[in-house]
Amino acid sequence: MANALLERLFSLTERKTTVRREVLAGLTTFVAMAYIIFVVPGMLADTGMPRGAAMVATIFSTVIVTAIMGLYANFPVGVAPGMGLTAFFSYYVCGTMGLPWTVALGAVFISGVFFLILTVTHIRQIIIDSVPMSLKYAIVVGSGMFIAFIGLRSAGIVVADNATLVTLGSMVRPEPLFACFGLLLSGVLMARNIQGSLLIGILCTTLISMLLGFSATPDASRFADFSFFKEWGTVFFKVDILGALQYGLISIIFSFTIFERFDTMGTLIGLSRKAGFIESDGHIKNLDKALMTDATGTIVSSFMGTPTVTSYIESAAGVSQGGRTGLTALTVAALFALSLLLVPLIEVVPSFATAPALILVGGLMMADVRHINFDDMTECLPAFLTIIMMPLTYSIANGFAFGFVTYVVMKSCSGRWREVNPFMWIISLVFIINFVLRGLG
């Protein structure tokens, strides 16, 4: 009976897989993704959100949207708040701009509605196709540098300096030493292709710091009262949509929308290729449903209390283990739901233990730099500015702006204006207007 239901829901035979293989693939993906339970709430806590509430919100968003991805789209993909998007949300929107996290969640909601419209009308593909590949790659690379920079700061390895803006922190302090230990441990485990390397690094660093007395131990009473659910009430449905509209956050909403689209499209296409879902004519079955899930998930995540969700490339670990259907995703969702029982333990994980994960994820995102044509200055300069301006201005949006505007200007002044898609002109104009308004403000 159960097998017949699973067969009907997920077409296991058609995709040449079994229940056992799908469950093991889901377990593999969960282990590869589980570090987000520690890292995402840490970044959200910097906005003023209670960390326990942010953690529950992160888990709920992941469980709900990943389950939808499995049941509706039948894709073996885990979906959770994006690392780059969480960094943008926490450190630019709430940090640099100083907006309340409730207003930022309002912007996430609006971007979700906007993308849902784009998905239904198929305009999404036109916008994505309008951005040149060099800038798409640069956006990923720049975001990786930004995330790594945040990790280095959280670890105390990079600190502020009046003379040079930033400098090396004291490497004899416990925080940088523990972070370096976690970084090297996770790096070695990854080099040896051990699944869950980032999670193992976080747990080992936390445990050793506890044993040596450098970080707090869990409060046993917290395991019984589940008070973290009450904490979650402080962020659940706290979406200030009117506030976001009053602030006129066009560029922020645009950034949420565009950045997440590129990330999702690249991830889904890459995973589809790995799973053998791409047909001879290039069509990917159920890709439209996967994108619809992503758009709907963004709206859901804003109500849960987290930034935009995105498909996680770590799902490739499960696909490599044979995951071919939504049963893999459903397994991932179930395991994240079980992790709610460990929230009191997870709360005590220090930032220097999660910092190595940010640094390593940022490093992995650098891989796309090899696809940028640095021999063509009209491609090189916009890509370089996109990459460098993200960490140096502490803003993913600024990297977008410099890259897009420079691309249009370089191509046009080089007599190659025909290479510029009309949508690029519109996007660049929006960024220029935003620069002017910010300057006048």
Oligomer: single chain
Largest sheet: 2 strands, antiparallel
Q: Trace the largest sheet across and list its strands.
A: 1-4
Question: Which structural class do you get from the secondary structure elements?
Answer: mainly alpha
Provide mean pLDDT, rounded.
Answer: 82
Low-confidence sequence ranges? none
Number of helices: 22
Whole-number total of structural domains: 1
Strand content: under 5%
State Rg. Answer: 21 Å
Mass-distribution shape: globular
Q: What is the helix/strand order?
A: HHHHEHHHHEEHHHHHHHEHHHHHHH
Could you list some keywords that capture this structure?
single chain, two-stranded antiparallel sheet, 22 helices, mainly alpha, globular
